[in-house]
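Hey L., structure's done. Input below.
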Amino acid sequence: MANTTFNGPVRSENGFQIVSKDATTGTVTTVASTASTGIVTNKFIKHVGFATGVTVNTTAGDSPSIGEFTQPANTIITDIKIFCDTAPVIGTGDIGYEVGTSSSGAQIVAAQTDEILDGGTTVVAHNVTVTSLVLQTQDGTTAPASVQYTDTERTIYCNITNTVDATTAGSFTFIIEYVQIA
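Output:
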């Protein structure tokens, strides 16, 4: 197959396919496609969603602006990172987080009370915090369903917590990676 460079839009009335050809067998497998609607269907592509504007409370406790992300049906959350957009300023204390299926829940990412800031006064803008997703028991007689998976659309709540009052609220963005599996 030839490589072709286009200058301008590529258009198709019947969608597009990205394929992979096995070098040994010659078997062609579709790895991604678009329908005529333009919607990409691929269970191997990571999608990214955001919950923005999550701030540190001026009084100790949960964020006054808990972030929300709509997780699409039939998807698994694979990773969550927290990006500091604007530096918060607090008295010497802790800043943490939790991610769940309720506004102060920790079902997806367990509460970490001091992982963003531990006994400090500020977080540098553009800092990235890597979270750990909650894991289920893997060796039980009955393995439970994953909390990261949903078969129906649902809201995921992203919360910043602080142990002391903030003089500058700052702002955080939760970056949520997920894959479509059906």
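The first strand starts at residue 17 and ends at 21. The CA atoms of residues 109 and 134 lie 5 Å apart.

-- N.
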